[in-house]
Amino acid sequence: QVQLVESGGGLVKPGGSLRLSCVASGFSFSDYYMTWLRQPLGKGLEWVSSLSDSGTSIYYADSLKGRFTISRDNAKISLYLQMNSLRAEDTAIYYCVRGNVAFDLWGQGTMVTVSS
Amino acid sequence: EIVMTQSPATLSVSPGERATLSCRASQSVSSNLAWYQQKPGQAPRLLIYGASIGATGIPGRFSGSGSGTDFTLTISSLQSEDLAVYYCQQYIDWPRTFGQGTKVEIK
Prior knowledge:
The structure holds two protein chains of two kinds.
Chain A: E1 3-7, E2 10-12, E3 18-25, E4 34-39, E5 46-51, E6 58-60, E7 68-73, E8 78-83, E9 92-98, E10 105-106, E11 110-114
Parallel strand pairs in A: 2-11
Antiparallel strand pairs in A: 1-3, 3-8, 4-5, 4-9, 5-6, 7-8, 9-10, 9-11
Chain B: E1 4-7, E2 10-13, E3 19-25, E4 33-38, E5 45-49, E6 53-54, E7 62-67, E8 70-75, E9 84-90, E10 97-98, E11 102-106
Parallel strand pairs in B: 2-11
Antiparallel strand pairs in B: 1-3, 3-8, 4-5, 4-9, 5-6, 7-8, 9-10, 9-11
């Protein structure tokens, strides 16, 4: 079954850290760029970061640079997002998606809540 | 950053009627445009890419058109299951950017 499954979301205090994971199945993970998108509840979609198939090309939203780190382990068919210095405005559903142009496969999302 | 602007914010359409959604880019994106559908409580799914190419498994009533800065998503005969928010997204440049969405309601 072709799917992406995220985990690692939860409640964290401002200034805290969280690491999101995404496990892929049903396709050749190592052949694809992968991306994290996010969506505050009731609001629109925001691109966060993309990572090339080999891991050598990385792109971040300017507003997140220095706080978030994307990585992957092709042997574990997994994508990660390390989030540091979290702020209230980072509260959102975080989606792991396949691709870096049109995003053709989405996970179900994992909720991150930043609150004291 | 390329700004994507969608209109209208909300569209109310009767079943069987045509729905026309618009998306405008602040600069040319050529045909590097995708459309997504997000039903309530679900993750978005890809409908259209390359401005007019239907994604796998997408019903034929969904079609996309346009190039440059002006794009249209058309639902030729609206079904009740088409209740959703629709987003456009450009991928000619980084950062990838989305429109704010058009909510399609069933009249």
